[in-house]
Amino acid sequence: MSDHPRPRPRFHGRVDLPEGTPCGHPGCDQPAEFRAPASNRVAGHVGGWQWLCLDHVREFNAGYNFFDGMSPDAISEAQSPLAGWAHVVHDVNGYKFNDPLNALHGKFGQDAFAGRRTKAGVVLAEADVRALKVLGLDAAASFVTIKRAYKALVRQFHPDTNGGDRSHERRLQDVVQAYTHLRSAPAFKTA
Questions:
Q1: Are 130 and 119 in contact (CB under 8 A)?
Q2: What architecture is domain 115-184?
Q3: Are 154 and 175 in contact (CB under 8 A)?
Q4: Tell me, what DSSP letter sits at residue 147?
Q5: Is the whole-model pTM more than 0.70?
């Protein structure tokens, strides 16, 4: 025989608690080995945790209903393949972008999106940044500013306001394309 203690069967979620920690279920004298939310309506990190034995954590899990208390529309939205990705996430470092798993922050670091965030904190696509540059603007521009710059540049480059001079026609086309892009860009979309 070996002096090593016999390994306990492994179950996902088993936590080593101090010896003698009782199960949190009323009337149970088994040792607590598993952590579960105190309520099935509130996440454990918000509403607190309870410590249960294997039988009672199984009972808790069997009665757990993620959709409990949700409206039919909220249930449908939660079941969508895009659930969680459609909402802007506010990162603790000040970023605001669609990255609920915080996968980009670790890879790119804090200055990854410098110069690409709007005043609201939304990270712009490269095409949005290029279009703003054509209009002589940066990421901090509002849609009102974009519209004002567009009108000024059209007046500047249009042949009708330049005595028929068509030498700026290519630049005018770039301005029109940039404005058309920004008008339909999600970051600047107007109702």
A1: no
A2: Orthogonal Bundle (1.10)
A3: yes
A4: H
A5: no
